[in-house]
Write a structure and sequence with these properties.
The structure holds 2 protein chains of 2 kinds.
Chain A: E1 7-13, E2 21-27, E3 30-36, E4 42-46, E5 60-62, E6 65-67, E7 74-76, E8 95-98, E9 101-106
Chain B: E1 3-8, H1 12-24, E2 29-35, E3 41-42, H2 47-52, E4 61-63, H3 65-70, E5 74-77, E6 81-85, E7 90-93, E8 98-100, E9 103-106, E10 110-112, E11 125-127, H4 131-142, E12 146-150, H5 154-165, E13 169-173, H6 186-198, E14 202-204, E15 209-213, E16 220-223, E17 228-230, E18 233-236, E19 240-242, H7 245-249, E20 258-260, E21 271-273, E22 278-280, H8 288-302, E23 316-318, E24 326-330, E25 338-345, E26 350-357, E27 360-367, H9 373-382, H10 407-413, E28 419-421, E29 426-427, H11 428-438, H12 443-450, H13 460-471, H14 491-500, H15 506-512, H16 524-535, H17 549-553, E30 556-557, E31 563-565, H18 576-588, E32 593-596, E33 602-607, H19 612-621, E34 634-639, H20 653-664, E35 673-678, E36 692-697, E37 700-705, E38 708-709, E39 713-714, E40 717-722, H21 725-742, H22 749-756, H23 758-767, H24 769-786, H25 790-795, H26 800-803
Parallel strand pairs in B: 1-2, 1-9, 2-5, 9-21, 11-18, 12-13, 12-18, 13-14, 20-22, 34-35, 35-36
Antiparallel strand pairs in B: 3-4, 6-7, 7-8, 10-19, 15-16, 16-17, 23-24, 24-27, 25-26, 26-27, 28-29, 30-31, 31-33, 32-33, 36-37, 37-40, 38-39
Helix pairs in contact in B: 1-8, 6-15, 11-13, 14-16, 21-23, 21-24, 23-24
The chains are: A mainly beta, B alpha/beta.
């Protein structure tokens, strides 16, 4: 059996992500966007806008939201949900910062 | 026999714990304290005033020898413990002496983190941790000279201010873009940097230390960019690490710090820990308030209160630099369900921000005026509902519960001689008097007659309120469309104020123009970035994170997340070499679609983001550069073949098109700019629907502008006629610069022209030759900084993080 349980996986240093920016993580289950806000909080979402699948990692990051580069939906980083009148959710990926390193809870072909 | 309590470490946490313990249970233990420093206990957080000379060491001693004696505590100064024998219940000091314990408290504190760059062990490199460090700094300051402080956090800035007060030339190097980024948002960080610079301290942010220079002592610091800063002393203040080595050696559970439970107990029931060496619920603390909270709990535990528990601390920060008032507490990030109340008073350099969630304060940042910090922190810690005082909350405790101010009432209450417009010295009475006397009803009329708000414009709001007061319903306020929900100012006001106030960064604009959000949004940030870039060529540092993805990575994002690449083909002319290179790139990177565009270019569609730099490298090698097909920028100059080939051609339209594109490429503009140059009135280059067009005629060049062939279809308008190619180029550069300086972000030339009127544009770039020359000169000046091929830059490694996805290392479980 090749199945793996999701596990905390070291990704990068917080400093590797630009402030008010994001990086893409090529994870086994699909791309994950890891965001860093102006005040150094780190969030992770599936890199897939609920609207038309735009890569959220490429959007402009402002406060704790990101504006999708394709059609300007604003996705809240804390909940993964679209803000304003739009409805949809880019699913959150568990993320933590330990000693300045970003870790995601990923994996699992389960 | 009395139980024996041994305390390893004599810092602030241990001292405070002993105070509580000897008060609650004076006779419970025979206490021995080992302190590694050869002195009594002192208030470490007051080292900064000692460094600056505002306090003496004696003034910061908390417990002198008599204090220990009166409580029967045996203090072993300079007694460093090197081992714990948990089985035998003893500790061993460096001198070999062994002391037994029944209960042990580990309070070993933390050590400064020293960045291991070359030269970090040279004499003259010090940390900022204890009195010895302070004495080393004071010795260096005695001879004057230069100091470099590495680290723009709390300690680093306090050290910098102290050394400056001692007469040294001080430079602060900070890795991050703004100071104290863990405690302050960028707006407050910006104000702090201004304050440090105002006291003569040089601050370099985004500074990566490469090495510390010197043979047998420090002589300077070299940064990654190669620049060198002379230094007689280097202070490292980049952070601390819990001292948990002793505990680890004894086999206690240690993560980042020594692990304790809510009772401050380690995994050995007889061993407790307190202070900066511990890790509690995943947190290590470096501020004094949590240490005191822990000390109180530990003392109660040791005194026999088994229920005493520490549940973590919400921390607040104050900078102890005289004249700089700064306070932060709690969680001040934004988020859903969170609201913020922001007060900015640009003139007084005040910034206050409260973050509210569920009607309670969860975070506060204050700069410039912090008197209410304690009150806000109290509301935060007690989770007091603020619903009833929300309207006046930001004004502080003295306003709590008061009625919200009516802004009109404040203006109405001003005396007639109160100055409204500082630029032109216009008082309230003059404005209201002129309104009545002349029957003025619009802001422009008031500006024309009184000059109030006619210069920098920052009093426009006040003038409008006066008009409202004087005219009542008769005043029709000009409806200015704000840039976005982050501000009430329109684009034109923002542009004018950027120039009038010499604002040179996004945080500066947001502070000085009193933005209502802390970090802007996807609408205002790109606009501000453009306005700043246009206003301060060569001076402003482009903020890539405020650009739309296409301009950030210099390619066009497609619906599937791939990108398209359009190399520049000057005037739409290409060659066998270029075409061959394009074909090779298409093959090499398996690019799915190759398309000819309407602007006479070749578009390569479906390029994977991580392939972009390699694609560009190959195109660069064949002499091609970015076509800027992705930008609010000069895009294409479309041409026909003109007099060189065409039997009807009147002038060299291809040559003029190439010349224009060579001069204008790289220019950022409010919206995209496309040109067309046709060699005769048959107009094969379709110049009459471009932003700027040229129709060549026998007598010279007819210059057209303000066409559109997109959402709107609109033929161009005549701008003017040029007799020579040089004159045509000058007019077009002047027109482009006028557009760059006057249009609103995302406003195409035809919309700008419609708004300001064709005549006003003609007056600047055709009729007034001096003005035309000045505009063209400003355009060319800006181009000196703009004409850098962004593709080549990225091929050489700029913004590498954009193109390299992160690949986690995923250990595979063994098959089967």
């Amino acid at each position: 059996m090749n199945a793996m349980m999701p596990m905390w996986t070291d990704i990068c240093a917080v400093a590797d992500i630009p402030r008010r920016g994001a990086r893409v993580v090529k994870a086994p289950g699909g791309d994950i966007a890891v965001f860093r806000t102006a005040d150094d909080r780190v969030f992770a979402l599936n890199d897939h806008c609920p609207h038309k699948g735009g890569p959220l990692s490429q959007g402009i990051v402002h406060d704790t939201g990101v504006t999708c580069p394709l059609h300007n939906w604003v996705i809240d980083l804390e909940t993964g949900r679209a803000r304003g009148a739009d409805e949809g959710c880019a699913h959150k990926v568990p993320v933590e910062v330990v000693d300045g390193r970003v870790r995601l809870r990923i994996g699992g072909t389960l | 026999m009395t139980a024996r309590l041994v305390v390893v470490g004599n810092g602030m946490a241990a001292g405070r714990m002993l105070e509580h313990l000897t008060e609650a249970a004076p006779d419970a233990y025979a206490i021995t304290v080992f302190g590694a420093e050869p002195r009594v206990n002192y208030n470490r957080i007051l080292l900064s005033p000692v460094l600056s000379g505002e306090k003496s060491f004696e003034q910061i001693v908390t417990h002198d020898d008599a204090w220990y004696a009166s409580r029967g505590i045996d203090l072993v100064k300079g007694g460093e413990i090197v081992a714990i024998d948990r089985a035998a219940h003893t500790v061993t000091a460096r001198d070999g002496s062994v002391t037994p314990y029944d209960r042990l408290v580990i309070a070993t504190g933390s050590s400064p983190f020293i960045v291991p760059v070359p030269g970090h062990k040279l004499p003259g490199v010090v940390a900022y941790r204890d009195l010895d460090d302070v004495n080393a700094m004071l010795a260096a300051a005695e001879t004057g000279g230069s100091a470099v402080v590495i680290g723009g956090g709390l300690l680093g800035l306090e050290a910098a201010a102290g050394l400056k007060m001692r007469g040294m030339e001080v430079t602060v190097l900070h890795l991050m873009p703004t100071l104290m980024e863990r405690q302050l948002d960028p707006a407050a960080g910006y104000l702090l940097q201004q304050a440090m610079e105002a006291r003569g301290i040089r601050v370099i942010c985004r500074a990566n230390t490469h090495s510390i220079l010197g043979e047998d002592k420090v002589t300077g610091v070299r940064l990654d960019d190669g620049s060198e800063i002379p230094a007689d002393i280097v202070v490292m203040a980049v952070g601390i690490r819990p001292n948990a080595a002793l505990a680890k050696g004894a086999g206690l559970a240690v993560n980042r710090g020594l692990l304790v439970d809510d009772h401050m107990r380690t995994d050995d029931a007889d061993i407790f820990a307190v202070g900066e060496c511990v890790e509690h619920r995943g947190q290590c603390y470096g501020l004094v308030a949590p240490l005191f909270d822990m000390a109180k709990v530990l003392a109660a535990q040791l005194a026999g209160d088994a229920t005493a528990a520490y549940e973590g601390s919400v921390t607040s920060t104050k900078l102890k630099v005289t004249g700089v008032d700064l306070f932060s507490a709690g969680d001040f990030a934004e988020g859903e369900g969170r609201e913020e109340i922001v007060l900015r008073d640009a003139a007084r350099g005040i910034y206050k921000r409260l973050v509210i969630k569920d009607e309670r304060i969860i975070g506060a940042v204050m700069y410039g005026e912090t008197a209410d910090g304690g009150w806000f922190f109290d509301l935060l810690k007690k989770a007091t509902p603020i619903t009833d005082m929300r309207g006046t909350l930001i004004f502080g405790q003295s306003f709590a519960g008061g009625t919200p101010l009516d802004p009109m009432a404040a203006v109405a209450a001003l005396p007639d001689e109160a100055e409204i417009c500082g630029c032109n010295g216009v008082c309230k009475g003059k404005i209201t008097g002129t309104i009545v006397e002349k029957g003025l009803t619009s802001l422009d009329q008031v500006r024309a007659h009184t000059k109030a708000s006619a210069s920098c414009g920052s009093c426009t709001g006040l003038v409008e309120q006066l008009m409202q007061l004087t005219l009542g319903d008769k005043f029709a306020r000009a409806a200015v469309q704000p840039v976005c929900a982050c501000t009430d100012l329109g684009h034109d006001d923002v542009r004018r104020l950027i120039l009038a106030k010499s604002l040179k960064s996004v945080p500066a604009v947001m502070q000085e123009l009193e933005w209502k959000t802390s970090c802007g949004c996807a609408k205002c940030r790109p606009a501000l970035n453009y306005y700043l870039l246009c206003a301060w060529p060569g001076d402003y540092v482009d903020d890539g994170q405020s650009r739309f993805i296409n301009e950030r990575v210099h390619a066009n994002i497609q619906k599937d997340g791939t990108y398209s690449v359009v190399p520049r083909m000057w005037g739409g002319v290409t060659s066998a070499t270029e075409l061959r290179a394009i074909a090779d790139v298409v093959d090499k990177f398996a690019i799915p679609t190759v398309k000819v565009t309407g602007g006479q270019r070749i578009d390569l569609l479906g390029v994977k983001k991580e392939d972009l730099p390699a694609v560009w490298a190959d195109l660069n090698a064949a002499g091609m550069v970015s076509g800027h097909a992705y930008g609010k920028a000069l895009r294409t100059v479309k041409t026909c073949v003109g007099s060189e080939w065409c039997r009807f051609g009147t002038q060299d339209s291809t040559g003029l098109g190439i010349r224009l594109e060579r001069v204008m490429w790289g220019a950022w503009t409010p919206a995209k700019v496309k040109l067309g140059v046709s060699g005769c009135p048959r107009n094969c280059a379709e110049a009459t629907c471009k932003d700027i067009g040229v129709i060549c005629v026998d007598s010279g060049y007819d210059i057209l502008f303000a066409g559109a062939a997109g959402l709107d279809i609109k033929g161009t308008e005549a701008l003017g006629h040029a007799g020579s190619e040089d004159e045509a180029v000058e007019i077009i550069l002047a027109l482009t610069q006028a557009y760059r300086e006057q249009a609103r972000y995302l406003e195409r030339i035809y919309k700008w022209a419609k708004r300001v009127g064709n005549d006003s544009i003609r007056a600047q770039v055709i009729d007034d030759v001096d003005k035309r020359k000045a505009l063209a000169a400003r355009f060319l000046h800006a181009q000196r900084f703009a004409q850098v091929d962004p593709w080549a830059e990225r091929v050489s490694g700029v913004d590498a993080h954009e193109f390299n996805p992160l690949t986690p290392f995923m250990p595979q479980e063994a098959a089967e």
